[in-house]
Amino acid sequence: MKYIFSFLFMAAVATMSAQEIKKESPKWQGKFEQLDQLLPTPNEYRSSSGAPGPKYWQQRADYVINAELNDENQSITGSETITYFNNSPDALKYLWLQLDQNINEKGNNTLKTATNSVRDSVATKTIATNLGLYDFDGGFKIKSIKDASGKALAYTINQTMMRVDLLTPLAAGQKISFSVDWSFNINDRVKGATPNDGRSGMEFFPEDGNYLYIIAQWFPRMCVYDDVVGWQNKQFLGQGEFTLSFGNYEVNLTVPADHIMAGTGMVENLKEVLTAEQYARFEKAKTSYDKPVIICTQAEAIAREKTKSKEKKTWKFKAENVRDFAFATSRKFIWDAQAVKIANATPLAMSYYPKEGNPLWEKESTKAVKNTIVTYSKYSVDYPYPQATSVHAASLGMEYPMICFNHGRPKKDGTYDDRTKWGMIGVIVHEVGHNFFPMIINNDERQTTWMDEGVNTFVQYRTQVETYPDMPQRRGPASEIVPYMKGDASLQRPLMVNSESVVRQNFGNEQYAKCATALNILRETVMGPELFDKAFKEYATRWAFKSPKPADFFRTLEDASAVDLDWFWRGWFYTTDNTNQSIDQVRWFQVKNETANPEKKEKNVKKGDLAAAGDGAKNQDFTNGPEPLTVIPTDARMYGEFQNRVDDKAIIAKLQNKNIYEVTLSNKGGLVMPVIIEWTYKDGSKEIDRIPAEIWRTNETKVVKTFVKEKEVVNIVLDPQKETADISMEDNVFPKVAQPNKFDDLKKKSK
Fold first, then answer.
1. How high is the pLDDT of residue 504?
2. Packing angle between helix 418-433 and helix 453-467, nearest 10 degrees?
3. What's the farthest any 2 CA atoms get from each other in the chain?
4. Which of 507-521, 524-538, 596-610 is least confident?
5. Pair 514, 477: CB distance under 8 Å
6. Closest C-alpha to 631, from 654, 607, 612, 610
7. What is the pLDDT of residue 111?
8. Which of 62, 36, 84 is nearest to 231 (CA)?
9. Which residues contact 275 (CB under 8 A, 6 or more apart)?
10. What is the rounded distance in angstroms from the CA atom of residue 547 to the CA atom of residue 166?
11. For residues 247 and 238, what is the distance between their CA atoms, to the nearest angstrom?
12. Is 270 exposed, middle or buried (0-12, 13-18, 19+ CB in 10 A)?
């Protein structure tokens, strides 16, 4: 009972009572409660630490593909053999494949579910795309599906998904091989048969009559079957990207003989498809670490543009342990490459671009590829593949294993401004960076966009800061996300939503920038770079060539850092709250140098109560000086059962000549964040106090904290370096009323 009495006695003299807090605070929202009830229960497949469990499994799909690109009618015809390994504990009666080209079919669900309105003076391209007015016969034409013995397998096509029924169930631990023959017409990217189909297709160059093809989602691909959702067969509507299984690829692509090709993996027959001189240049590039070697020159490309060979060549690609395959081909391509040192490996950084990309691409592209794989390797895992390629494509940024398609085209005369240059470098870093997230750390892009776009944008930001110090940074710095965070809340979605639920106009700000900003704040402000970097690298190492879910990311970062971050995940990923802290009031005290006296104590308490009740003018600045504070010897009742006593005089002596500041803070945005306070002293010096977010744990909207300072304070600012994405800096400052300066006085006199 004495302990309870002592506790209650101390609570009664606290700066802000529970009753006062209750009057001013809305309902408690549990912002610091654990996420256990929201995250899936750990099991033998995915452990509570965030690591793969002892019985973790994932499926595998190997492909052998033979295909031909027809440059006369812009189509592709192909045949593939898929060998599918059932590593799951389940028997599978049927298999699901993705038919993503079907987004270009007439009457596809993307067009049916698109919302649009009528406005006057609309551009023909816009209305044609939005209403599907182009006459284009798109989508896969499936010719046959057969098992290894040649027997036909029944199949059902449902928009962008295809079910293949097996003659007998595929047992756990078994594999099956089957073949699919197919063809499709290549979409013209400038037309856009649907609003979101620009990831793949062709670009026509009227001046020389040639095409540049960037081809992806071009063959029926296995859907993922995993331990969390079974078959991931959510339809492809365009905004949500892809989820795929790892496997090995052998791909033989037949194209016009004068085409130059880029693709996932390495070309096995380069001597057959290149001239002797070009092959010698390629071999030289393997040991050129300081600058790129031009393998196929601009002069050679211009010559090919004019001749337009009618003959054909087959390029033979091979890629191991990748989740997809994409390629680019054109007689317009210039090709350069250089070697990069990554641990014990020397992958090639390469670029392919038409003359319309020069001189910018020759100068910057391969350098950006190199910078990306070096920096990403530092923060995640060593780049494991033999090459990384950037291909120039108009108005696009899209990624696939070892190859990506990127915008950035100079003007016709070859000149370009900083916007074009930095935009091109930024998109190359971002898309090459996708080799790591999600091509290696293989998350489900269709369901959790932030796990690849947001996480990748964060490491992109680190790469740009470290290798391009003069580059303007758009996504990553906390201050840059403020306009979105303070925008229309009805259009915002939490990060933890399906990709197709995100409002299109907010997609970049939300799934890219918000997540990147959150992780940057986590690194710089919450955890610190050293702790964060170790935890982040642990996540990448654990899940390289595996398929993590959000819970695996959250749990790993906590497991590897010993930092409870559930409050952070809850706020930044599960809500649309924003940061909006404010300084409501500051009271300044100095201890009176006098003998304790009950009457004076009573007088001082009343004075303090008046100030706390909101004597507005008095508490707007420091002009009235400090309030007197009486400190009295400890009442014996406060010791409870303890026999020992503290040294009252010594404690009182420590407070003599000190400045005591009681600061009342509010959290108006709902997002609990650390409190960063900058103090400016009378002598002009500054000091910053960093208080963890847990200060809000018992009251999520209002807290009072007292600080003891040696010097007299003249100014207080919250978040002075704009680290927390606070949407309103106006209320982050004390004094509240700005003191008139000499210029103001002169203006008054002139009136």
1. 86
2. 130
3. 106
4. 596-610
5. no
6. 654
7. 78
8. 84
9. none
10. 26
11. 24
12. middle
Cβ neighbours around 439 below 10 Å, total:
25
- How far CA 254 is from CA of 99, 295, 631, 637, in Å, comes to 22, 21, 89, 92
Which of 674, 560, 661 is closest to 47 using CA atoms? 560
Cβ-based neighbour number of residue 223 at 10 Å: 22
Which helix (H) or strand (E) element contains residue 275?
A: none
**pLDDT digits 0-9 by tens, 46-102:** 999 999 999 999 999 999 999 999 999 999 999 999 999 999 999 999 999 999 999
pTM as predicted: 0.91
Q: Report the distance separating Cα 677 and Cα 734, nearest Å.
A: 11
* Residue type for position 602: E
Q: Residue 161 pairs with which residues in a beta bridge?
A: 98, 158
CA geometry: angle 227, 96, 157, nearest 5 deg = 150
Could you identify the residue written with the tokens 């009295």? 632
Question: How many beta carbons lie within 10 A of that of residue 186, not counting itself?
Answer: 24
Give the bridge partners for 627, in sequence order.
589
> What ranges in 339-417 are assigned the alpha helix state H?
360-379
CB 397 within 8 A of CB 407: yes
Residue 414 backbone phi and psi in degrees, to 5: 90, -5
Cis peptide before 89 (omega within 30 of 0): no
Tally DSSP H helices, then E strands, for the chain. Answer: 19, 31
Reply yes or no on whether the pLDDT at 628 is more than 70.
yes
Using DSSP, state whether 141 is helix, strand or coil: strand
Domain residue ranges of the chain, discontinuous segments joined by +:
2-29+579-750, 57-202+222-245, 257-442
Burial of residue 507 (number of CB atoms within 10 Å: 0-12, 13-18, 19+): middle
Return the CATH number of the domain spanning residue range 57-202+222-245: 2.60.40
Which residue is it, tokens 């799951």? 88
DSSP 604: H
Asked if 510 contacts 531 with a C-beta cutoff of 8 angstroms, the reply is: no
- 652-703: per-residue pLDDT in tens? 999 999 999 999 999 999 999 999 999 999 999 999 999 999 999 999 999 9
The residue that leads in pLDDT, 27 or 598, is 27
Quick one: average pLDDT of 31-35? 93
Do 586 and 621 meet the contact criterion of CB atoms below 8 Å apart?
Answer: no
Return d(Cα 498, Cα 305) in angstroms, integer.
Answer: 44
Q: Which tokens is 751 given? A: 């009136």
Judged by DSSP in three states, 513 sits in helix
Q: Say if residues 138 and 185 touch (Cβ distance below 8 Å).
A: yes
Q: What does the H/E/C string look like for 185-238?
A: ECCECCCCCCCCCCCCEEEEECCCCEEEEEECCCCCEECEEECCCEEECCCCCC
Q: What is the mean pLDDT of residues 602-616?
A: 37
User: Which element (helix H / strand E) includes 350?
Assistant: strand 348-353
Rounded CA gap, 239 and 702, in Å? 40
What are the structure tokens assigned to 108, written together?
Answer: 């596809």
Q: Which segments of 7-140 are extended strands (E)?
A: 60-70, 75-85, 92-98
User: Mind giving me the DSSP string for 7-54?
Assistant: HHHHHHTSSS-HHHHHHH------TTS-STTTSPPP-SSB-TTSSBPT
| CA–CA–CA angle 523, 435, 313 (5° rounding) | 165
